C-alpha cells in the first residue's frame, strides 16, 4: 500500500493533489535576483516547489572527455560554448542557497535541490526539504545511497535507463529509505514534437506493478501538458518540468521550459482531471440522481387493467420515467401472473403493492 510522504509544507500521496515542481535549472542565467524572481513567478503560476541544481563544472563534466568526443551530441551541439564552459556558467553559487530557501518560504513554496557533487550535500541538507536524483546519475550508487541515508524524500528520475538500471538504483535507495518518488522521464531536451513518441507513459503502470508501495511521478521536457495529464491519469502524483519567463532567452534550458501562462494552464487542467478521476467505486453520483427517475424505464400498464385482472407480458410496457416506487424492466417476472389489486390506468406505473 502506498503511504503518504511529506515534502516541505506539502503531503504527497495517492489521494493528495498532484505536486508540481518547477525546475529552475540553469534558467537563473547567473543572476540571484533573477532566480528569486522565477521563484515568485512559479508560485504565482501554481507551482508547489522550486527545485535547483547544485554542481561545479569540474565535479559533473570532464572538459577533456567532451572535447574528445570530437563533436557535441544532441542539444549540446547548438551551444555556443564548450560543454564545460556552459556548466561553469550555469553553476549555482552555493552562497545563494540560504537566500533561495528564504525566498521560497516567503513565496509559500518548497525549496529543494539536485546535488551533483557529494561534497555539497552536508551543507545543502540544512536547507533542502527533499533530494532529486537526476537521470544521468542513476548508475552513481554512491550518490543514491548518500542522499537516501540523509532521511529526506528522494525523487529518482529514470530517463535513458533500462529496467535493470532502475532496479539497481531502487535497491540502493531502499536499503536506507522508503520515502521515494520514482519518476518516469525521457532525457531528450530538443523540445521536438517527435519526443511525444518516446515518453512511454505506460512505464508508470510497470512501475506500479513492480513497486506497489512507491509514489510515482513524471519528469518531463515536452511542450504543453498532454503528457502531464496522461501521467496523472496513470497514477503519477509528482510532476516536474523546467520553468522560465521567456523561452527565447539564451541558455541551455530555456527552449524546452514552460512559461507562466502554460504552467498555470497545466495546473488548472490537472485539478480538473483529479476531480474527474474520482474513485474506483461505481455508484449513482449526487449530480445525476434525478436522471435515475427521468431516464430509466418503469413497468407500466400498456392498456387499462381492471381490478382483479391477471397481468400478462403483453399488458405491460417499459417507459420513462421510473419513480422511486416503480419497478425496473428486469423485475417483470415479479408481476407476470399476479392479479391487479386496483384499477390501473393505461400508462400508470405498477408497483408490487398493486398486485397480489
Name the CATH homologous superfamily of the largest domain: Aldolase class I
- The span between the termini is 53 Å
CATH architecture tag of the largest domain:
Alpha-Beta Barrel
Radius of gyration: 30 Å
| Helix share, percent | 25-40%
The CATH topology of the largest domain turns out to be TIM Barrel
Can you tell me about this structure?
The protein is an alpha/beta fold and 356 residues long. The protein folds into two domains: 9-55 and 92-277, Aldolase class I (TIM Barrel, Alpha-Beta Barrel), CATH 3.20.20; 286-354, Antifreeze-like/N-acetylneuraminic acid synthase C-terminal domain (Type Iii Antifreeze Protein Isoform Hplc 12). It is built from eleven helices and twelve strands. The chain has helices spanning 32-44, 63-67, 83-90, 97-107, 121-124, 141-149, 163-174, 203-210, 226-233, 260-277, 289-294; strands at 5-7, 10-12, 19-23, 49-54, 110-115, 131-133, 154-157, 180-185, 215-220, 238-242, 298-301, 316-319. Helix 1 (32-44) links the parallel strand 3 and strand 4. The protein starts with a strand and ends in a 37-residue tail after the last strand. The relative contact order is 0.12. The model has no long low-confidence stretch (mean pLDDT 95).
Amino acid at each position: 500500500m502506498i503511504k503518504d510522504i511529506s515534502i516541505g509544507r506539502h503531503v504527497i500521496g495517492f489521494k493528495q493533489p498532484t505536486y508540481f515542481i518547477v525546475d529552475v535549472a540553469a534558467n537563473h542565467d547567473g543572476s540571484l535576483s533573477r532566480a528569486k524572481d522565477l521563484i515568485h513567478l512559479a508560485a504565482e503560476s501554481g507551482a508547489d516547489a522550486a527545485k535547483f541544481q547544485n554542481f561545479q563544472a569540474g565535479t559533473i563534466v570532464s572538459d577533456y572527455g567532451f572535447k574528445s568526443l570530437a563533436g557535441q551530441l544532441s542539444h549540446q551541439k547548438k551551444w555556443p560554448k564548450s560543454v564545460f564552459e556552459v556548466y561553469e556558467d550555469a553553476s549555482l553559487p552555493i552562497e545563494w542557497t540560504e537566500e533561495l530557501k528564504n525566498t521560497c518560504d516567503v513565496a509559500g513554496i518548497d525549496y529543494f535541490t539536485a546535488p551533483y557533487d557529494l561534497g555539497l550535500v552536508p551543507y545543502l541538507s540544512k536547507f533542502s526539504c527533499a533530494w532529486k536524483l537526476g537521470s544521468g546519475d542513476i548508475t552513481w550508487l554512491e550518490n543514491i545511497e548518500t542522499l537516501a541515508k540523509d532521511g529526506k524524500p528522494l525523487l529518482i528520475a529514470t530517463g535513458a535507463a533500462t529496467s535493470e538500471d532502475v532496479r539497481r538504483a531502487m535497491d540502493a535507495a531502499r536499503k536506507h529509505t522508503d520515502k521515494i518518488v520514482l519518476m518516469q522521464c525521457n532525457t531528450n531536451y530538443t523540445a521536438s514534437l517527435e519526443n511525444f513518441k518516446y515518453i512511454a507513459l505506460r512505464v508508470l503502470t510497470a512501475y506500479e506493478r513492480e513497486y506497489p508501495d512507491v509514489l510515482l511521478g513524471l519528469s518531463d521536457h515536452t511542450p504543453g501538458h498532454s503528457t502531464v495529464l496522461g501521467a496523472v491519469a496513470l497514477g503519477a502524483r509528482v510532476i516536474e518540468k523546467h520553468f522560465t519567463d521567456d523561452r527565447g532567452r539564451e541558455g541551455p534550458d530555456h527552449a524546452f521550459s514552460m512559461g507562466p501562462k502554460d504552467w498555470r494552464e497545466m495546473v488548472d487542467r490537472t485539478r480538473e482531471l483529479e476531480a474527474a478521476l474520482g474513485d474506483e467505486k461505481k455508484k449513482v453520483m449526487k449530480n445525476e440522481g434525478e436522471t435515475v427517475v427521468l431516464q430509466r424505464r418503469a413497468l407500466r400498464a400498456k392498456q387499462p387493467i381492471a381490478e382483479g385482472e391477471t397481468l400478462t407480458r403483453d399488458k405491460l410496457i417499459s417507459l420513462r420515467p421510473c419513480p422511486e416506487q416503480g419497478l425496473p424492466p428486469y423485475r417483470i417476472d415479479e408481476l407476470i401472473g399476479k392479479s391487479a389489486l386496483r384499477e390501473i390506468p393505461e400508462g400508470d406505473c405498477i408497483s408490487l403493492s398493486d398486485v397480489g
